[in-house]
Amino acid sequence: MPGLDLTGRTAIVTGASRGIGLAIAEAIAAAGGNVVVTSRTQESADAAAALVGADALGVGAHAVDEAAAQRCVELTMERFGSIDILVNNAGTNPAFGPVIDQDHGRFAKTFDVNVWAPVLWSSLVTRAWMGEHGGSIINTASIGGLTLEANIGLYNASKAALIHLTKQLALELSPKVRVNAVAPGVVRTKLAEALWKGHEQAVAGGTALDRIGEPEDIAAAVAFLASDAAGWITGEVMVIDGGQRLGDAPLFRSAAAMDV
Q: Which residues lie across from 240 on neighbouring strands?
């Protein structure tokens, strides 16, 4: 049975200086893969690479900077000779509040980073390696792209677009390249702090598994999707939310207790 061994494979993980991206890079390295981590600055990329492992490479590359992305791909090919895995993890959410209150600057930044960057990086790695040799692309989406929420509607719209693009690219790049997405729920990251900090227990209590997510929860799923164990999976969105979307867990638990 195919396993999670990624020995000999090389991954680029964008937005990997902390949180989910760093955990993904560490999980891929732990499975034997070579890892290139990107961040906006060379300093933060180098710091992340040092945490991932001695063989990891850090590259300062803002996700939407086309020249920097091209340079990262070239450096990866020079250093490791292949790009077998791409994790489009870089994301942003500068637009908080009702959609009609957002300006064009916040709209453009949200969609540039969350939607355009994955298209850019997917294009570059496909032309550099995957188009001929195959590979796996995993996009970090969000359960917000599958539902409706107050105050983060623009962010959620960008993640819904990314989910659609995941499916589109899965067809366009088939059969050589598998393209999937993960859709995290509330995870303990800086980007998601507004969703849990100061009221973590209330948020956790509303989920079936009674806790918010950790970056490692998402990283484990990404490592699986990158591996041969997921060799017949493409165009899918793996929801990783501890049962958050199932509904009000305490209500169901109370009802079950009454039936006993």
A: 184
What's the pTM? 0.94
**∠ at Cα 125 (123, 131), nearest 5°?**
85
Tell me which residues are annotated as active site.
155
215 CB-side CA count, 13 A: 17
- 86 contacts 137 by C-beta, under 8 angstroms: yes
* Whole-number Cα distances in Å, 211 to 20, 116, 207: 17, 32, 7
Q: What type of residue sits at position 255?
A: A
Amino acid at 42: Q
Residue 137 CA to residue 165 CA, distance in Å, equals 12
Contact by Cβ (8 Å): 36, 57: yes
Whole-angstrom distance, CA of residue 21 vs CA of residue 40? 13
Distance CA 24, CA 162 (A): 19
Report d(CA 251, CA 228) in Å as an integer.
Answer: 40
**Nearest CA-CA partner of 139 in 109, 205, 184, 82:** 184
In this structure, the chain runs to a length of 260
Give the count of alpha carbons within 13 A of 114, CB side only: 26
Q: In this predicted model, what pLDDT tens digit does every residue of 125-170 receive, in sequence order?
A: 999 999 999 999 999 999 999 999 999 999 999 999 999 999 999 9
Q: How many angstroms separate the CA atoms of 56 and 33, rounded?
A: 9
